[in-house]
Amino acid sequence: MADDTPLRKLQTQGVHHITLLGADRQTSIDFWEGVLGMPFIFEQPNLDDPEEGHLYFDPGDGRLITIFTNESRAPTHRRVPMVPGAVHHLALNVSQATFWQAPKRLDARGIPHSGPTDRGFMDSIYFTDPLGFLIELASYRFEPPEGCRHADVMIEAHRIRVARGDYNIDREHLADAIELLVERTQQTLSPSRAPADPY
User: What residues does the VOC domain cover (predicted)?
Assistant: First the structure.
């Protein structure tokens, strides 16, 4: 028998937490807090597996990254298999100031990495956790206008890029998107907001 209930969305409001399989407890703390600077905020047993611990870290936005630990899981540094349905990587937001220090700070620990990678709208650097899971440090090349989010800038930059037939979003699209959002969201007393040359 068919259900006549209309289809409705389950509206999300952000990522609550991400849980990853980690190595042993101390290796996990040393990586997530000792390398990535995430405060270790609490722990308890894995409520679905009493052989495992469950560590909770604050990635910097008050949400949670949690790690299942097991004292029998030692660091392997082998790349996690890339298979359909698997998580490819975890991207963590860092400031431009931190981003440009990342290669030197990873090198000091002997952690292999990709080096800075140009992504047009952001800069990225890639390396793996102690179990071979790919981590990305991502740093936006822009700040959104007051009252707007990064996503607001990205959708406008995408529309501009597509209209121009460009391959990917780059700095010019971002600058034009920010200008458009400011015009749309902030008032002015000027009769015209057109570009001008006062020189």
Answer: 14-140
